[in-house]
Each structure stands twice: as structure tokens, then as C-alpha cells.
């Protein structure tokens, strides 16, 4: 099935449209939108809309898209052998959707499908889309319900559960945008609809790093593990939405989620059990469903261990950590049992005192007696304007055996890593850390794994969802 959109044409060649319909051997939907909510393209300028629709009907497509309520008068002109896709549209939210009147009209036709295209802004809006689906199903009216935007993507991958007659997709990522925000490729939809497909997601703020970095990584991992599935990002804004999404995990709507800020601490009290990694760090970045309920993990603890294991963790006796925020708790939790000395330098004394209360064995940089360390970790971003300067003390960096930059952008080489290589010191990049963190989450969700060596930035960032 294909949809032919004629609303972008200044002049419509109806005979050519009819010829295309006659030439293809699959069903065709003819659509002429009355408006576009997009500043990147000019809106259609068809003042004679009713005449255009009647001429499109004459081309004998299998389906004709009519907008509700502006095209009601055209519905009676559609022959019984042709199907009506009755579109209820709201590009700004859900308020414009008048389902009661649409259902009343639908009961008068045996050849009508109710299509709702709306833009959910909240998880509550998503729930409303599901309620509409259930109502139409109860009324035995065929339906297609689509949520626009990032949050609405879940309605696309859960299309079968919403009793949709079909779902719209695009052939490639650059085809469809900016016309339909949130539209997925046909390939992605096929993976999402496959038997035993994995539906995974992050929940939290819709950050650029999540959309441009982590989402492509997780989708690449799914492909590399030869599984069908899709990884989404569901932005939420309050506790009620967090509770609802956790309920969806319990109900099997999602197979696993990654927790983003600002909910990594808030979610701890909402889970059935916490792994030691979440207890140590007081944060949860991964939730998996087991027979014991929802379990919270912090994958960064195990990720630190994995990137250091090739160097022999037990041999890393003296550790220096630059920065008390970011991943300091994960680092200390990973190394405290095998090390003899962990030195931490923080910007503010209160940062160190807070860590000291949780990990009494750590030492302040001001009390350290040595500049020679087995492992030096940059756990702090350079100050603005000093991105080309490593925040590590020069002597400590030069005298280290291994330098680990956990803080910098994980798809580019930092100044610390460059200096470490120039000193012929073993280096571990932020990429190594983050790719292991994502693999660990994937293992917890699916009980499958792939070697980190199979994943490179070049193989991942060629395309994204």
C-alpha cells in the first residue's frame, strides 16, 4: 500500500494521478491535506478543495483521505467500492479531535476508517490515544491512531496493540521529515512488528545526546545481536508520567528502559528491588523486569570494571580521581575493594565531604603524599574556554600508568587522551566507557550480549532512527 500526497503540488495533473493508480498493483491512498504546521515548507494553496477531492475520487483509488469535519459533504460522493479514510487532525495537541461526531458519521458507512493524527505533549495525552483506540475497537470501527513527535513514536511501534488497520512509514530517514515529525522508516516498523520484537526506550529529558548518541548506539546493538526491535526516547516531565511508564513496563508494553535525568534518583523508591550498583551510586540508569518485579541498576559501575579489566583491576592500587561529581560514586564503588589508595580532588570541599561520608577510605588530594598513580581518571569537564587544556595536574598525568577520560564527549578525542598518548601512557576514552554501559543495559534487558569491539563510532553514526 502506498499513499500519494498531492497537496504539495501547485498544479495537480489528475490524469497522471489516475495513470499511476492504474499502473501499480497495490492499493493506493489519495491524500490532499488542507494545512501544514511546518515553517520549512509552504502550505498548500488550493482554494477549490471540494473540486479537487471530487476529481481525485474520479481517479478510482482504493482509498480516499477526507478530513473531518471540513470534508463531510464529500463523503456522500464516494462510491461504495472505495474506502474512506476519515482523518481527525490536531498538529498542536489533542483538543481539536471530536471523536463523538466522527463515530456518529462512521456508523452511516461500511467503507470508512477513522484516522486520528494528534500530537501528544504528555503521557496523559498518550493514554487518551489508547482510550480512543479501545473505544473505536469496541464500536467495531476500523481505526488508525498516530501520535506525532518524539513522544508519539510509541503509538507507531505499538500499532498492532492499538488495533490500527495499518501504519504509515517512510522509505528513508530523509523522506517524510519535516512533513510528519516522529515518522519511522518502514524498515524500523518491520523490526518493531516482528514476532518477539524488543521494544526498549529511555525515559527522561529529551536531550540532544540521547537522540543523537545513545539511540543510534542501542539500535545498532539490537541489529548486531540479530534481534528485531527498536529503541525510542520517551520524554517525561513529572512524577505521574514516570509512574505511568513504569506501569507500562510491568504490563509488558516496554521490555526495558534507560532512566535519564532528572529521574535517576526519584525512580529508586518506585522499584521493587535495587541492585548494589544503584545502592552505591544512589542513582538508577536502567530498569529491567524480572520475576521479582522491577529491578534498578546503575550500569556505570560495571562499565568502569569492564574498561579497566584488560589492565588487571587488582593491580590498580593507587587511584586518582579529578572531580567529585559525574561518575565519582560509580568509580569508587568499582575500585574501593581492590585499591589501597583512592585520592579525589573536588572543586568544592563539600563535594569531597559528601563522598567521604559514603566512602570513608578515600583521601583528599590536599592530603595525598604521592604524584605517582596506577590509574588517573578525568571525571570533570574542562572549564568553558579551556576545552583544549586537560584539567588534570601535569605531573600526575605524566606519572600515571593509565589515564581514563570518563567525562569528555564520547565521540571525539579529548585533550587528556591526546596528552596521554603523547606520553605513551595507556588510555581509555569516554567512548569505551559509554559503549560498555549501553551493552550492559542491553544484557540486563535481553539476556543477550555482543562484544564491545564490534561497535565503533563509524559503524553506528551512519544513520539513526
Overview of this structure, please?
This protein is α/β, with parallel strands linked by helices. It folds into three domains: 192 residues, Alpha-Beta Barrel (TIM Barrel); 114 residues, Leucine Dehydrogenase, chain A, domain 1 (Rossmann fold, 3-Layer(aba) Sandwich), CATH 3.40.50.10860; 118 residues, Rossmann fold (3-Layer(aba) Sandwich). 35% of the residues lie in helices and 18% in strands. The protein contains 17 helices and 18 strands. A six-stranded parallel sheet has the order 1-2-3-4-5-6. Helix 8 crosses helix 16 and helix 11 crosses helix 12. 41% of the residues are buried.
Helical fraction equals: 25-40%
The side-by-side strand order for the widest beta sheet comes to 1-2-3-4-5-6
Summed over residues and divided by their number, the pLDDT gives a mean of 90
Pick out the low-confidence regions: none
Question: How many DSSP-defined strands?
Answer: 18
Name given to the CATH architecture of the largest domain = Alpha-Beta Barrel
Kindly report how far apart the N and C termini lie.
Answer: 22 Å
CATH superfamily of the largest domain: Aldolase class I
Shape: elongated
CATH class of the largest domain: Alpha Beta
- CATH topology name of the largest domain, in short, is TIM Barrel
The total domain count is 3
Quickly give the structural class.
Answer: alpha/beta
Gyration radius, rounded: 27 Å
Amino acid at each position: 500500500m502506498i499513499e500519494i500526497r498531492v497537496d504539495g503540488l501547485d498544479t495537480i495533473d489528475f490524469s497522471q494521478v489516475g495513470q499511476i493508480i492504474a499502473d501499480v498493483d497495490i492499493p493506493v491512498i489519495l491524500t490532499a491535506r488542507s494545512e501544514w504546521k511546518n515553517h520549512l515548507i509552504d502550505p498548500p494553496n488550493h482554494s477549490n478543495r471540494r473540486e479537487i477531492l471530487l476529481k481525485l475520487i474520479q481517479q478510482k483509488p482504493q482509498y480516499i483521505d477526507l478530513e473531518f469535519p471540513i470534508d463531510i459533504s464529500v463523503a456522500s460522493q464516494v462510491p461504495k467500492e472505495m474506502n474512506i479514510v476519515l482523518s481527525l487532525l490536531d498538529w498542536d495537541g489533542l483538543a481539536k479531535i471530536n471523536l463523538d461526531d466522527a463515530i456518529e458519521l462512521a456508523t452511516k458507512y461500511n467503507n470508512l476508517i477513522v484516522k486520528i493524527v494528534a500530537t501528544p505533549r504528555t503521557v496523559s495525552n498518550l493514554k487518551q490515544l489508547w482510550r480512543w483506540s479501545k473505544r473505536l475497537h469496541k464500536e467495531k470501527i476500523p481505526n488508525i491512531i498516530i501520535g506525532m513527535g518524539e513522544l508519539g513514536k510509541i503509538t507507531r511501534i505499538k500499532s498492532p496493540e492499538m488495533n490500527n488497520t495499518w501504519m504509515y512509514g517512510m522509505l528513508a530517514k530523509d523522506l517524510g521529515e519535516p512533513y510528519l515529525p516522529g515518522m519511522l522508516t518502514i524498515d524500523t516498523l518491520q523490526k518493531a512488528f516482528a514476532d518477539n520484537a524488543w521494544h526498549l526506550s529511555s525515559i527522561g529529558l529529551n536531550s540532544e545526546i540521547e537522540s543523537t548518541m545513545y539511540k543510534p548506539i542501542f539500535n545498532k546493538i539490537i541489529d548486531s545481536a540479530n534481534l528485531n526491535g527498536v529503541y525510542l526516547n520517551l520524554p517525561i516531565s513529572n512524577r505521574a508520567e514516570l509512574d505511568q511508564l513504569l506501569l507500562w513496563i510491568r504490563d509488558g508494553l516496554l521490555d526495558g528502559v534507560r532512566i535519564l535525568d532528572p529521574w535517576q534518583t526519584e525512580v529508586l523508591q518506585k522499584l521493587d528491588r535495587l541492585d548494589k550498583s544503584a545502592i552505591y551510586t544512589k542513582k538508577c540508569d536502567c530498569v529491567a523486569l524480572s520475576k521479582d518485579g522491577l529491578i534498578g541498576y546503575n550500569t556505570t559501575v560495571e562499565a568502569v570494571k569492564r574498561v579497566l579489566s584488560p589492565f588487571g583491576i587488582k593491580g590498580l592500587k593507587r587511584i586518582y580521581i579529578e572531580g567529585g561529581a559525574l561518575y565519582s560514586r560509580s568509580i569508587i564503588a568499582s575500585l574501593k575493594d581492590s585499591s589501597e589508595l583512592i585520592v579525589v580532588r573536588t572543586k568544592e570541599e563539600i563535594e569531597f565531604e559528601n563522598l567521604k561520608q559514603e566512602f570513608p577510605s578515600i583521601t583528599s588530594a590536599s592530603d595525598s603524599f604521592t604524584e605517582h598513580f596506577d590509574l588517573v581518571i578525568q571525571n570533570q569537564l574542562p572549564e568553558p574556554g579551556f576545552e583544549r587544556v586537560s584539567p588534570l595536574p601535569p605531573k600526575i598525568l605524566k606519572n600515571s600508568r593509565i589515564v581514563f577520560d570518563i567525562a569528555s564527549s564520547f565521540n571525539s578525542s579529548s585533550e587528556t587522551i591526546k596528552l596521554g598518548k603523547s606520553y605513551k601512557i595507556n588510555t581509555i576514552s569516554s567512548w569505551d566507557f559509554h559503549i560498555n554501559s549501553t551493552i550492559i543495559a542491553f544484557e540486563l534487558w535481553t539476556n543477550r550480549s555482543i562484544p564491545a569491539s564490534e561497535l565503533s563510532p563509524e559503524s553506528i553514526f551512519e544513520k539513526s532512527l
